Amino acid sequence: MTQGNRLSGGQIDRNTTLSFKFDNRSYTAHPGDTLASALLANNVRLIGRSFKYHRPRGLLTAGSEEPNGIVELRTGNRQEPNTRATTIEMFEGLEARSQNRWPSLKFDALAINDRFSNFLTAGFYYKTFMWPAAFWEKLYEPMIRRAAGLGSLSMQEDPDECDKGFRHCDLLIIGAGPAGLMAALTAGRAGADVILADEDFALGGRLNSESFALNDGAAADWAAQAVAELSALPNVRLMPRTTVIGAFDHGIYGAVERTGDHLASLPAGKPRQILWRIYTKRSLLCAGATERPIAFENNDRPGIMLASALRTYANRFATTAAQRVAVLTNNDDGLRTAADLHAKGVKIAAVIDVRPDAPINHDYEVLRGAQVSDTKGRLGLSFVEVALADGSIRTLECGALGVSGGWNPNVHLTCHQRGRPVWNDDLAAFVPGTDLPPGLSVAGAANGAMSTHGALRSGAEGAMKALDLKGSLPDLPAAEDAPASQTPFWYVQGCSRAWLDQQNDVTVKDVKLSHQEGFRSVEHLKRYTTLGMATDQGKTSNMGGLAIMAELAGKSIPETGTTIFRPPYTPVPIATFAGRMKGKEFHPTRLTPSHHWAKERGAVFVEAGNWLRAQWFPLPGETHWRESVDREVRQTRASVGVCDCTTLGKIDVQGSDAAAFLNRIYCNGFAKLAVGKTRYGLMLREDGMVMDDGTAARLGEDHFVVTTTTANAVSVYRHMEFVRQCPFPDMDVQLISTTEAWAQYAIAGPNSRKLLQKIVDPEFDISNEGFPFMACANITVCCGLRARLFRISFSGELAFEIAVPSRYGDALMRRLMTEGEEFHVVPYGTEALGVMRIEKGHAAGNELNGTTTALNLGMGRMVSKKKDSIGSVLSEREGLNEPGALMMVGIKPLNQEDKITAGGHLMEASGPVDAAHDQGYVTSAAFSPTLECHIGLGFLKNGGARQGEKMRLVSPLTDVTIDVEIVSAHFVDPEGERLRA
Amino acid sequence: MIIDHPLLGPRDSSEFVYLGDAALIDRPDWQVENAAEAFYDYAYLRGNPAGEHRELWFHESGDRSWLVVTRNTVTHEISKVELARDVARAQGRSK
Prior knowledge:
- The complex is a heterodimer.
- Chain A has 20 helices and 50 strands.
- By secondary structure, chain A is α+β, with helices and mostly antiparallel strands.
- Chain B has helices at 35-44, 84-90; strands spanning 2-5, 9-12, 17-21, 52-58, 66-72, 78-83.
- The longest helix of chain B has 10 residues, at 35-44.
- The A-B interface holds A 249-252, 279, 417, 438, 657, 660, 686-687, 714, 718, 721-722, 725-731, 868, 872-874, 876-877 and B 1-2, 17, 19, 24-28, 30-31, 35-36, 39-40, 42-44, 56, 58, 60, 64-66, 75-78, 83-85, 88-89, 93-95.
């Protein structure tokens, strides 16, 4: 197909022809085109269907404010929904598809919605689908989602990467139109470190879209020269294709650079987009202005566009939406569109100017004091009905209508820290207020300087002020300085199906309905009608809605107020925020010292925070995880097992006040712990709840090693630093985390000492007498390797934990396996570890869940009342010490086959099953290979006195009720004889 | 946000962990007569000002200093950053 709507001139490269597809049909374009300009050049006006009524829609704008021209871009796993055709830079082989239509764009079955528009007005969903409530999730919402969809996701993994980066500058200039370029020249020549960012691929802003001159040449040429000068300055960084999306605290800006979206394929290893965090000393917003439409009956037909957009397509992209064009305007700027199109040979059907005193033009007809009363054309505009000043109606034939209702300064970033724009009567628009983000100032059209000269001048002034530059203004190029002249005109009286927000399908009628039903504040209006809540944040629609609401309320627009904007300025894909933090890279992965060895053994791993821990070690022939876990438990209890427990937090505590410090952080006493001994410690929060538990080993008078649970290693360390630095700043105690410095293994089972004796150097006595239960010592192993040995047990067996410097961890594990062959040593994972601690009745994360006290855990007497420790005072509160308080108990099924369900609740053997009769709940459950039945730990009211009681365990969630018996939590070796063997 | 660390200079707030009101430094004496009440206030009751707020931040990805940051909760302006240990000592806290 030929590009039938191409005009002369423009900033496209005619020497190269690109081919692209829209809805599977092939077209041609040139470098410099956007998808939007290329579609217009090929006489494609119909681009999509509207959100609610499925009305045919085309382009409204030529920029990022586009509400309608939204397409699915690319194919397969690179398919991206909801991209704006106006911002998609053309590349060879581009493929795009229209959205929200079925079966085809030209015949859409759901266009029937348009016939029922009377029922689909604002608030329709709230009113209609209220009842019955259950229908909402199952029926209404899926149905509405199908009908009112935008694009669809590919549901495949995105093969491309996005990245993140950091930049710093003296002055960030946002927008490279006349104001931004002049500001960058001024700041750059003065030697300041400048970043100039613009969302477009061609820098210059409106200078690239206008036909007027700067100095003696084309405006676009001046822009190109300015860009060339800036490129040569080493202190200026140009960032085209970069949208500054948000103004954050302390001069930090978020920006998205589209580094690869304009390429047919990404070079290997290059990111598609980069999310920049830009740290600025000062910033200057030169974001320009956005033209606003005028609402009239059926103003959403393809071909009805902003007048400035028609001018951009003609001057920059050398294309027109149609060969016969009309213009509707309330201001002089709209007249430029007619003049420029006429100069390019496009037939001007007429200029419809609402002003009775509009200037006359001799090249084409100007209908003064006229308005558009309706439009016609099924899939695109063919006729415009004009109500003339004398009251008669005239029909104009045209394929496009340019609409200009004046310009709104792009104040968005000035609102990101709750700044409120203020009304300017001369411009009939909101301009930035005084409560700007600190460090930000505004120049150019964004600040209401609407003429080119005004923009250039305020850009130069803005840069000088921001950088505190002395001297006179730089020479400015000669440029037009037309006064902004317009008659506020928002909508044609009497219209109802006149669109304000084309992306969310909000009409003038909806705003009137909102007013009628009492939703009159701007915030209510927005939420009731969804005006301005689409992905374009109402850039072209908010003002119209506000003006109509103001009129209905009999107030002025400033009295009515405006909603404000929040980041991001334009939509950002979630992938860009995620960057490389996806899949396995979502968080860092920490590997234990025995990881590679465990992998060789075929271990199954489980994530524990950032750590990967061996969960169990399957042997050939084992088909179910329980087989492996049961074997690991049995073999450990029968002989000896080894488990990597490096992930437990280790905190080295040193200083003359080390013991006194531990006395503060643990509720039980540590001052009298002898050197060479280890003690279990329970740590409370200040509110008296249990925070964490672990052990503290006293390796010297002034030296302890504290262990924490894996989960709380970071927060406990933070807490200990808090106690040391804030409430007790003069304690002589130093802390350092040594979790990664030591590889630590638990060696458990009756043969654990025998195994250790094979590697511990002979000068160290680890017999029961020489190294009794809870002993600790610095020792050497394997002929001189320094190590730490602790005689502590989590499994209930005779057990030790041995620590060596991490780099020897792998070697030590292999050595233990070799030396342990004669004892049939077994490596065990976290599952067997968990089973054995439940069998022994040790509390762990499930029990230390932030809602339990020392009393609940059966350790109430551990809380010393003879000393000050964190949490000791509040742990004595009455409510936490009631006689019937929850106590940890063991739970066994009466029927050996029954399974205990963690999360299930305990009820009396008979009586009602409801919350009022709840007696407690199960926190941990496992199959015990030692007892050969399922067992559990849980909390039961007055549990200490209820051993032997028969109860019901109820799990309504899984629909299970079983009979259980309350027993001691210590299922295995309750007397602790094995520990001390 | 940027926190101007008294020892390390300006650092991005993402390096820090927030705790809350700097009043948490003023831990009551466990032996005073109304200790239970004093600890109840200490643990549960905080001012919630719209304006200047002195609060504790921990430089977790840095030097592990606890800091007292004076921040305006309305504008996020940070007017002062001190080492919490210095603040605690100045308030007469010791061991």
